[in-house]
Write a structure and sequence with these properties.
The chain has 390 residues and is of the alpha/beta class. It has two domains: 204 residues, Nucleotidyltransferase, domain 5, CATH 3.30.420.40; 171 residues, ATPase, nucleotide binding domain (Nucleotidyltransferase, domain 5), CATH 3.30.420.40. It is 33% helix and 23% strand. It has eleven helices and 13 strands. The strands form two sheets. Strands 1, 2, 3, 4, 5, 6, 12 and 13 form an eight-stranded mixed β-sheet that branches. A five-stranded mixed β-sheet has the order 9-8-7-10-11, sandwiched between helices. Helix 2 packs parallel to helix 3. It is globular and about 65 Å long.
């Protein structure tokens, strides 16, 4: 098969903007070849960022709010897709969008019952004239899976030939891991990545990010607060499992602080939340008997968090850039891969990783400016992914 040029789009749980990546992909027997062409971020306007944060649980959200946000986010994704076309030197074949998650419905038993991503794909199709693969999580949930993290399919292919048990770690608003080469294929959310850190930093500085871990570096871990936070039952729930800001939000942090007799200083609070993220990730990696951890996502740019991980892990930690995959753009390249697989009739949920009943074709396709012309479905499931020079 020839090369397909795909634009991948998503906005993570940090809700700070749209990640964009452009890749050329090709099926070569049982191998997907991926050539990265570039990645960037289109930040949300401040007013849209605040509107999105304002409807997160425990806040309410009316049908009017949801309709307006679906349009505003869709228009922002359309602008991001146009940036992707520029990165692609004016020529692209397909757009894949994971949208913006607004709510991820997980019952008390741990079963995912629904997931909602906004960012109406029709705006993307109108802006680019390209077909759009979107709504990539819902089918996995309908098949009994968690719908997240979908990184399992990328990581299982990309790290297939690594020796031992490799854990691919992504630290976004929520941290998740994929276990490759272990006792069983598995992917799940370990808990808060940057979510609580960003929330606390926003209250302290007005900017929802502890840049370079500078606030955490001024404090020490508050043992009592850490104990309260680690008592959360989510960490002991069996995998596969998923979570989000429906759980790890402002009310959650306030309740934890209310259990303490005194005040917690700003530096100590950020140091403790950073330690929480590192501890819960390290515990999950240890449970999976990781022999190497490959990290990506915004959290790898926090040196305090990275140092804590290296202190707590039993295995060496490398950043995905060291293996040829840009850490900041990995999830957008994942999205491009998911769209590529759907386009070629290949399942996008790695067997066993999300808990779905089996492999499924993911997403819905919105036509571009012309009729849909899908290629012949692939005759075999890919077994590995090879990164090619940009």
């Amino acid at each position: 098969m020839g090369w397909l040029r795909v634009i991948g789009l998503l906005s993570g749980t940090s809700m700070d903007g749209v990640d964009v990546a452009v890749a050329e992909l090709r099926l070569d027997g049982d191998t997907v070849q991926l050539r990265p062409l570039g990645a960037t971020v289109l930040p949300y306007p401040d007013v849209l960022h605040e509107k999105l944060r304002a409807v997160l649980p425990p806040a309410g959200c009316s049908a009017e709010d949801l309709c307006r946000l679906d349009t505003y986010v869709g228009q922002q994704f359309a602008a991001a897709a146009r940036l992707g076309v520029e990165l692609a030197d004016g020529r692209a074949d397909l757009v894949a969008s994971l949208g913006q998650t607004i709510y991820h419905w997980v019952q008390g038993s741990g079963r995912a019952r629904g997931t909602l991503q906004i960012g109406q794909p029709a705006w993307i199709a109108e802006a680019t004239g390209l077909p759009v693969v979107s709504d990539l999580r819902a089918r996995d949930v309908a098949a009994g899976g968690q719908g997240a993290p979908l990184a399992g399919v990328f990581d299982a292919l990309w790290l297939a030939d690594e020796p031992g048990t490799t854990v691919a770690l992504n630290i976004g608003g929520i941290a998740n891991i994929t276990v490759v080469g272990g006792r069983r294929p598995l992917a799940y959310d370990t808990g808060p990545g940057n979510a609580l850190i960003d929330l606390a930093a926003g209250r302290i500085t007005g900017t929802p990010q502890d840049t370079d871990g500078s606030i955490a570096a001024t404090g020490t871990v508050h043992a009592e607060l850490l104990e309260v936070l680690l008592a959360d039952g989510y960490y002991r729930r069996p995998a596969p499992k998923s979570t989000g800001k429906e759980h790890f939000n402002a009310d959650y942090l306030a309740r934890a602080l209310d259990e303490l007799p005194g005040e917690v200083g700003d530096g100590d609070l950020l140091a403790t939340l950073t330690e929480l993220t590192a501890r819960t990730i390290a515990d999950a990696c240890r449970n999976e008997q990781a022999t190497k951890v490959v990290a990506s996502g915004g959290g790898v740019r926090n040196p305090v968090l990275l140092a804590a991980l290296r202190r707590l892990l039993d295995a060496p930690l490398v950043v995905s850039d060291d293996l040829g995959m840009p850490a900041d753009g990995k999830e957008a390249y994942l999205t491009a891969l998911l769209g590529f697989l759907t386009w070629h009739g290949v399942s996008g949920n790695a067997p066993g990783t999300t808990g779905a009943a089996g492999p499924r074709l993911l997403g819905s396709i919105t036509p571009g400016s012309g009729p849909l012309r899908l290629p012949e479905p692939a005759i075999q499931q890919p077994r590995r992914l090879r990164m090619q020079p940009a």
